[in-house]
């Protein structure tokens, strides 16, 4: 995430504008000087590590010099009614920025919405968070669809792990309810992921847990299979091999296959 709060009236993104006293002409001069330094050792320049760093430098330079990035973050250009639909919250307005970034050509956008660690006072937390998620996600999907972007944009809503199916006593290791009303703890044995757009067929449910929701019972899906599904939507072969800094081939997906039931 670029930082800042898109819900703030003075929302701005750090490190996007040039430093004080630096013009585009001076930036180009510095880039030319850097390129001359880069030519000092041709042997070093041919290493995979340095070549990767050069690509990253060029991407960063293009990002700062171009107008597309600045325009994408100018959320105040949006209709206030659409901003209201997304929700006047940091997460809701971030989802709107994400749509603008997709329009500007971003290939991958991540929204991080923290604060779900409700080991106690779960009801209070859900009553606060769930309306924000409902507004942001539903409006994002509708907005992408209205603009003809949903079929080529994969939207995923998920966490890094799930929560215990059984409520605790609100004590978090102390006496019952000493921290508050009951909540739920960390649980990595079974979780969910909502996917839409990008060629995904709606209304599909893949997999099921046993009756208590503690562990998969039917068609367990691994994280690698989700990654392979993203690769398929992006048009990247799941058997792609990458080269590390030593020149050795590495498989990023451990030979996983996409979740074909979704297509």
| Residues in β-strands, percent | 5-15%
Shape: globular
Q: Which stretches are poorly predicted, pLDDT < 50 over at least 5 residues? A: none
Distance between the termini: 30 Å
Structural classification: mainly alpha
**Strand order in the sheet with the most strands:** 1-4
Helix and strand succession?
A: HHHHHHHEEEEEEHEE
Share of helix among residues? 25-40%
Separate helix tally: 8
Average pLDDT taken over every residue:
88
Taking Cα atoms only, what radius of gyration do you get, to the nearest Å?
A: 23 Å
For the largest beta-sheet, the strand count, sense and barrel status come to: 2 strands, antiparallel
Strand runs, count: 8
Notable traits:
two-stranded antiparallel sheet, 38% helix, 263 residues
In short:
The chain has 263 residues and is mostly helical.
What does the model show?
By secondary structure, the chain is mainly alpha-helical. Helix content is 38%, strand content 7%. It is built from eight helices and eight strands, in the order H-H-H-H-H-H-H-E-E-E-E-E-E-H-E-E. The strands form four sheets. The chain has a two-stranded antiparallel ribbon. A two-stranded antiparallel ribbon has the order 2-3. Strand 5 (208-209) and strand 6 form a beta hairpin. The longest helix has 25 residues, at 122-146. It is globular. The model has no long low-confidence stretch (mean pLDDT 88).
């Amino acid at each position: 995430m670029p930082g800042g709060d898109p819900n703030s009236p003075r929302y701005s993104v750090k490190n996007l504008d040039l430093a004080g006293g630096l013009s585009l002409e001076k930036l180009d001069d510095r880039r030319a000087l850097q390129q001359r330094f880069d030519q000092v050792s041709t042997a070093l320049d041919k290493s995979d590590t340095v070549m990767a760093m050069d690509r990253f430098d060029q991407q960063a330079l293009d990002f700062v010099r171009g107008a597309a990035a600045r325009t994408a973050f100018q959320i105040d250009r949006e209709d206030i009614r659409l901003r209201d639909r997304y929700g006047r919250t940091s997460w809701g307005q971030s989802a709107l920025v994400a749509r603008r970034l997709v329009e500007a050509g971003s290939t991958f956008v991540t929204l991080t919405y923290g604060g779900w660690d409700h080991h106690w006072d779960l009801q209070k937390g859900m009553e606060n968070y769930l309306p924000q998620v409902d507004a942001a996600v539903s409006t994002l999907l509708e907005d992408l669809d209205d603009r003809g972007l949903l079929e080529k944009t994969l939207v995923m809503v998920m966490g890094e792990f799930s929560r215990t199916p059984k409520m605790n006593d609100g004590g978090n290791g102390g006496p019952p309810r000493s921290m508050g009303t009951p909540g739920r703890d960390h649980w990595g044995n079974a979780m969910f992921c909502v996917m839409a757009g990008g060629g995904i067929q709606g209304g599909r449910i893949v997999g099921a847990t046993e009756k208590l929701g503690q562990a998969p019972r039917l068609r367990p899906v691994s994280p690698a299979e989700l990654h392979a599904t993203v690769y398929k939507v992006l048009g990247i072969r799941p058997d792609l091999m990458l080269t590390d800094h030593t020149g050795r081939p590495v498989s990023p997906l451990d030979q996983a296959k996409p979740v074909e039931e979704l297509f």
